[in-house]
Write a structure and sequence with these properties.
By secondary structure, this protein is mostly helical. Helix content is 71%, strand content 4%. Strand 3 and strand 4 form a beta hairpin.
Length: 439
């Protein structure tokens, strides 16, 4: 049984505020195909934080934020210089810059090792479980300082994204048009990087770099697989980020008990739950999920295979073998590039639509199937004729293209093909083109 306390509530509140605050600007990084820029900035802000501390001598949030903003701008400028000035691939440019700056930050931290409270665990996982120890009074209750900081950053991000929605949208989808209309895509890019750097600093101490990077990238990636409009994508990104935070903490205090442990890192588990949610969306998305795309490919293969079978049955009837059943084997399906399952679905389709009936010896065309087969064969032979006469293709090169085109040939296209082929009655292979009155 879960023992819930006010500390658990505040852990989730801080996690949700931080995750949603990261996910919203992260969606624009994904749209700009620069998701890993968030990873680069998360490593690069370290020298900015260390430098701000060494100069000012305190760890006030505004001090660290100023240092992060400066280094965030420097990071984007250096990446652009390395990429364009040295003709270096974009990913390599990010790798060069952020590793160099991260190493510089470590050296600077080492310089102030006796005064800066920063260890590897804090860098990776943060200290979200300890945020309730640092509180400030607000409206008669003690509120974790991290909740105010991450909440304020989330509010600032919402204001920024609302005020500059049009400009960010335009520069994300069409930077050239944005520049032509007077909205500098480069300036907007730098401003977005500043916002992301500030968001990271606001969340860094509480949740660490793993969760910050995960929430910048994973929730927007989930939303991108489910919708193709910006506002719904932003809302879904926020929803996935919040769900990751809630499920992460619940998992952190329940899953380890199944293995005899007390608990685990909440921030790490939040990032893990983001990955679990992405896996679920990646597999099950109705538009772009692996399962849906595999099923659509299988259905398409079954349809093409059923049409192939109809064509074979029709050509047998042309040769006077209409009474002889066709046994279409798995080997023939394999040669057609289709699986055994596609063959089974093709047979079910022929039976369901009443195009064929099945005997122990194979398949036979029904009257309805004969009509459908004649329509497909007419479209196929019209396309072959048109490709030879209008496109000057060789007769032995037109079967494949015609096979792909016959399935999408409607009545109007068929009539236009008949007109452009001047009412030809025989195709380039000297086979009869079924007249339109027969289909």
């Amino acid at each position: 049984m879960i023992e819930w306390s006010v500390i658990d509530t505040w852990i989730i509140v801080v996690g949700v505020l931080s995750a949603v605050g990261c996910a919203l600007p992260g969606a624009y990084l994904l749209l700009r195909r620069q998701s890993m820029m968030g990873d680069a900035i998360s490593h690069s802000v370290l020298p900015g934080i260390a430098g701000a501390y060494l100069i000012v001598g305190n760890r006030e949030p505004l001090t660290l934020l100023a240092g992060a903003i400066v280094i965030g701008i420097l990071t984007t400028v250096l990446i652009r210089l390395v990429k364009h000035g040295g003709q270096v691939e974009g990913g390599a440019a990010m790798g060069v810059v952020f590793t160099a700056l991260f190493a510089l930050g470590l050296v600077m931290i080492r310089r102030a090792a006796d005064h800066v409270d920063l260890d590897p665990d804090c860098v990776l996982y943060g200290a979200i479980e300890l945020t309730f120890l640092d509180t400030v009074p607000l409206l008669g209750m003690d509120v974790p300082r991290a909740a105010l900081l991450t909440g304020g950053m989330l509010l600032a991000n919402l204001v920024f994204l609302t005020l500059f929605h049009k400009e960010l949208k335009l520069s994300s989808f069409d930077p050239g048009l944005s520049d032509a209309l007077g909205y500098s895509s480069r300036l907007l890019h730098h401003v977005l990087m500043v916002v992301i750097a500030a968001t990271m600093v606001a969340s860094f101490e509480a949740v660490g770099s793993i969760l910050v990077i995960a929430m910048l990238i994973v929730p927007p990636a989930c939303a991108y697989l489910l919708c193709d409009r910006l506002v719904p994508m932003l809302l879904l990104s926020a929803a996935f980020a919040a769900a990751s935070a809630v499920l992460g903490h619940l998992s952190a205090i329940t899953v380890p008990t199944l293995f005899g442990q007390e608990d685990t890192s909440t921030a790490g588990m939040m990032a893990l739950m983001a990955g679990v949610l992405f896996t679920a969306v990646f597999l099950g998305s109705p538009k772009a999920g692996v399962v849906a795309r595999s099923w659509h490919r299988l259905q398409l293969g079954a349809r093409l295979l059923s049409e192939e079978i109809l064509g074979l049955l029709y050509r047998r009837s042309e040769a006077g073998e209409a009474a002889a059943p066709l046994m279409f084997s798995r080997e023939e399906a394999r040669r057609a590039g289709q699986s055994r399952l596609a063959l089974w679905l093709a047979r079910q389709r022929l039976r369901r639509k009443g195009f064929a009936h099945f005997t122990p010896g194979g398949m036979l065309l029904t009257e309805r199937g004969l009509h459908e087969a004649r329509r497909l064969v007419r479209a196929h032979r019209l396309w072959e004729t048109w490709l030879v006469e209008e496109m000057n293709l060789r007769p032995d090169h037109v079967h494949g293209p015609a096979r792909r085109l016959e399935s999408i040939t409607g009545e109007s296209i068929e009539e236009q093909l008949a007109r452009e082929t001047a009412g030809r009655t025989r195709d380039p292979h000297d086979r009869t083109i079924p007249p339109s009155s027969d289909v």
